User: Fold these one by one.
Assistant:
Number 1:
Amino acid sequence: MRSGNPALSDNTFLDLGSGALVQGDAGAMTLDGTVNKTALLLALALAGALFSWSQFDAAMASGTPGAILPYVWGGAIGGFVVALVTIFKKTWAPFTAPLYAVLEGLFLGAASAMFELRYPGIVMQAVGLTFGTLAALLLAYRSGLVKATENFKLGVVAATGGIALLYLAQMGMNLFGFSGMGFINGSSTLGIAFSLVVVVVAALNLVLDFDFIEQGARQGAPKYMEWYAAFGLLVTLVWLYLELLRLLSKLQSRN
């Protein structure tokens, strides 16, 4: 079971000691349970986003825009740390996944408000495209129109890894004062093409996540894996939303 999502890797459902499939006797993972927990995580993320957005508005009204920075960096760094903990301690997912959702919501709300201030209407466009993509790919996957074959999985995983390495290289270059990959954030034709590719790859990761969750439910993974699977799907949705915001901002900056 391969997924480009780092939270949903090949050995997610395997016992680290024996290498055997982890199964729950008292209760097993189900698709319905995973869907319900995904909806709950999305609601928590939305609540966090609405709160930080309101704080952004208050900060701008009072002339202290710096007051929103704790929500941006606290949500981003805190969410990253909690995500790592969740990945390495999957049994903690019932507690860490909701915390991750709230922290990411705080970050997304503040970041979205900044984008909205500069490009009015961009947030609703990005939200609509994110959930529209989710619905379309889920329908395509359930109807069999899109199948997560081994070659498909390999291609998406390779593309995801390549993008991650490119982002890491850019961060390293910026850290040392170099700016050799300005197309990543630039609004040139190359920059827009790059963002389009990243959005497509992020969207295709949803297909891999659907397949991964379905296999976990079929193999009888323990109940807490519903939380972990919902967390993994939320990771992909957050990435897709941010990349759509980046793409839309590039397109609007050219107008």
Note: The helical segments are 31-61, 69-88, 93-118, 122-143, 150-175, 189-218, 225-253.
Number 2:
Amino acid sequence: MPACNFAQSACQAALAALRKSDFSPDEIAAVEVDTYEAALNYPGCAARGPFTRPLQAKMSIAYGVAATLACGAIEEENYARLDDPAIARLIDCLEFREDGAFTRAFPGRQAARVTLVSGDGHRFAHEMDDVAFADAELIERRFLKAAETALGQAAANDILTRVRQLDGQADSSAIIGQCGSVQGDTKTDD
């Protein structure tokens, strides 16, 4: 996930609450984020902006949750929208609360609950008792998306095929060579 470890379960809970609610982002009047003490007190995690760099936004639970709600997805592209008024509005209506049970469960579990409240008072909440880790399919999908952008579709697919066949290879030099040759092909002379 493209966010600070402490922000991940809150972002995942926000996405699940959004899907459960069937709200459009502009119908959300309040966002309540319940999480554990360490997440709220880690430097940058409770920051509300303004954000001038993507890394600042990635560290912020408020930004991550608001961007997830505004975009309807947890994606790397969310962190390129630092001046998005929809994200800023959702950050402004977000409230943090420490949940004692979540604090006691940490570090074994990284729990979060996100409650969305509409303008007419409807509430939808989703609770994560721990961060949901990415499975192999999600990792491969994210790799292909990033690699295709940087290297092109053919190179990305070739590298993924080679990674999938690593168990049958003596070493990873073919993958490194593929990355190096592609990288060399995309450089331009100054």
Note: The chain has nine helices and four strands.
Number 3:
Amino acid sequence: MSKKLIVVVGAGLGIGNHVAKKFGVNNFRVVLVSRNQESLNQYVEELSSEGIESYAVVADAASPLSLTEAFNQIKKNYGTTDVLVYNPAVLKDGKPTSLTSEILMSHYQVDVASALHCALQVIPDQVKQKAGTILFTGGTLAMYPSADWTTLSIGKAALRNLAFTLAEELKSKGIFVGTVSIGGSVAPDTHFAPDLIAEKFWELYEKREKNEIVYS
């Protein structure tokens, strides 16, 4: 039986790579997507050294065009995306009055709009297969907004609503959509260690019971 494929957009030393590893050790092929080729090469080397079949594709979450090109390349070279994980966010603080509409919209592109854009790249093939999973890295700022983190609060609220509305639309087509809403700063050797959070992504994928796990 051939391995399924997980695509992690927003690869990195935190949640992205730990989710990739969790699925990889459970017999998935892995494609990591981020902006930096050098870092990606290093991540692929690390996963490969642990026996995980992994590949890298460069794209920028701020650019829908680069994401489209990346997913075209992924489909051509590696096949249908069985699991999509969207992990990017602009982690920049700022109170509402310190922002401009342009700043808000540039963050929104990365935090929310590109999540939808990535989902739209994989949904048609998942619909054909009547199977697939789409998972978003959320945050409890969606429910408990902070003035110090205005754009991220707005972004996580919108991303959470995107997850729930996609889940409602796609359930009858065999596609599961979920989000892990994280209620703290991700850091190794803490309750919010990325490997512990990765377990929650796997739980959503495996159980497919509820569309959100709040990890706080």
Note: Helices lie at 15-24, 37-49, 64-78, 101-129, 150-170, 194-207.
Number 4:
Amino acid sequence: MAPVQAQVLPTSQESGIVAEKVRDGIDLQVNGEHFRHTGDPQMPLLWYLRDVLRLTGTKYGGEQGGNGADLVLLDGKAVSAITVPIAKLAGKAVTTVEGLAANDGSLHPLQQAFIDEDAIGCGYCTPGWLIAGIDLLRRKPNPNDGDIDQLPNLCRCGCQSRVRRAIKRAAAGKAGRP
């Protein structure tokens, strides 16, 4: 076996490599992680989440965001991700449906309540319902049917009654219990 020859990099010559300045961009937090967007500042948040970060839970529901499928929490409040350009997010915190569970994998109580009440249907609108429900529970810890009916979400599967039960179950602290 041939002896291994030590490789030493020359220290007396300069390499000619010059570090580039950090690109200007828009800094934001998504699900607790820091990101810097250096692309088009007018890109809607929805496309940044889905196409750049590959967080596909938030769904496209139309260019006006009126059906609730594209809801995310922006600094704790539900907003339509298609209607918010990245330029307005500097220093903001975004939470998507992927960020609702705890780091240890335990589900948010509303996620568990959705499972308990079988409030998932086809699943397309579920992420938006979860975000809207969390925002509602933050504002009104014990919502009534009228409060839930005011949510902007639409469901073509007919899960609204099960969603209502899930939100009420989470409000009552019964998620994960019979």
Note: The two ends are 69 Å apart (CA to CA).
